[in-house]
Amino acid sequence: MVLEKKSSARVEAGQRRVLDEATRQRRLTRQLEALEKDNFQDDPLSSLPPPGPTARLPAFSESEEPEKKKRKTRGDHFKQRFRKNFTTLLEEENLSEKPEPNYLSAAAPPSSLPPRHFCCVCGFPSHYTCTTCGGRYCSSKCLITHRETRCLKWTL
Amino acid sequence: LYSQVEFADTSIIITEPYFNFSSIQESMTEILFEEYQFQSALRTNAGSLSAHHFFHTKPSELCCLVVDSGFSFTHIAPYCRSKKLKEGIRRINVGGKLLTNHLKEIISYRQLHVMDETYVINQVKEDVCYVSQHFYRDMDIAQLKGEDNTLLRDYVLPDFSTIKKGFCKPREEMVFSGKYKTSEQILRLANERFAVPEMLFHPSDIGIQEMGIPEAIVDSVQSLPEGFRERLEAELRSLVPAHLPVSVLLPANPVCYSWEGGKLLAHTPDYDEMVVTREDYEENGHLVCEDKFDI
Ligand SMILES: [Zn+2]
Ligand SMILES: [Zn+2]
């Protein structure tokens, strides 16, 4: 991976700062990574104490058997193995070398339909592009909000 | 429930994603046989169980194409009878998780910080989101002011004391101009309702450079071996009226469709031939699984 020089991220264009292509791409990648994050959450209701008089839970004795030196079970072995992240596992599979259909070859290719554009503030169809960051906006009202909130404040 | 099951006498059917990594497949088998000591196991794809369910209920059908939209991704998978046509499988990296995360993100930016409220926002998604039949027309409606905006919903968030579960304010109680007098926390949703599921059809709307479901289906069918496409088309032609080029089946209960398929599969006479037993595994290791399971 080539490290981009951070200082080149903002190019002067007249008076206004402009984000270069590499920064725009980094911004998009970061957004998409955030959308991929695991998001499992338990029902908040289930963690609330039950209504009515609080039932007293049995207090488990902690001094019965010191659990410090627990035997290494197979479960630990699995945990070790699963510590690899997705990218590592993907690389280990060496799929680009394989001729038969696989995880990589199954990826849906880019769409051939023309891209659609939506205002990054309100989500309605947009006709204008922010000259500073390349974000889309639909009206001067949304452009003002965009400038005040995300436009340059989202840079890495 | 688990405590009522004796694993050593039980066979398990477990599903994995298409093209699951072999290292994960091996670990899965190890866990099933060594940790849980199952009597036998059948590892398969959820789509294969759906296909089995479909062919079982419609014995005259020869081909089908399963669209399986799950938590992490959406798969298109063609089947010819029990045979999975691997060259036609397509994966779109859009699933329920991404839709919920995106909804969380736009609500947090536009009106209320809900980034830590996955559970609640997932419920909002299930309660208010829908797939638009006329995308740009709905965009126009969603932009209207006042009562003309028939797509607008005010969603009352749960506070987990008096309101246990969120809900949409009934239309007649909605306040279109001004503020509510009640102290409830309300999300106002309009284009979010259909722009979020739209990512399944146009992942490029949010910068994911992949085909949406309809395009990926065409791409899948076009990649299939000589004859399949013609065969599929010919069969579809003979099955549906001429003005309908494709038949799409949405099971009455799509969430359980593949599970039901697994149940059916477990009762077929060949089931014992499909599984790997613990004995088998202990003797031959992963090889026997590689031979038998086609993930
Ligand atoms: Zn706008
Ligand atoms: Zn901008």
TrEMBL record, chain A:
The keyword Oxidoreductase does not apply. Residues 31-76 are annotated as: Disordered. GO terms for molecular function: zinc ion binding. It comes from the Eukaryota. Residues 119-151 form the HIT-type domain. One of its GO terms (cellular component) is nucleus. GO terms for biological process: chromatin remodeling. Signal peptide: none annotated. Keywords: Metal-binding, Zinc, Zinc-finger. This is Zinc finger, HIT-type containing 1. It comes from Kryptolebias marmoratus (Mangrove killifish). The lineage of its organism: Eukaryota, Metazoa, Chordata, Craniata, Vertebrata.
Automatic annotation (TrEMBL), chain B:
InterPro entries: Actin, ATPase_NBD. GO terms for cellular component: cytoplasm; nucleus. Its main location: cytoplasm. Pfam families: Actin. It comes from the Eukaryota. CDD domains: ASKHA_NBD_Arp6 (cd10210). It is found in: Cytoplasm. Keywords: Cytoplasm. Belongs to the actin family. ARP6 subfamily. PANTHER family: ACTIN (PTHR11937). This is Actin related protein 6. It comes from Kryptolebias marmoratus (Mangrove killifish). The lineage of its organism: Eukaryota, Metazoa, Chordata, Craniata, Vertebrata.
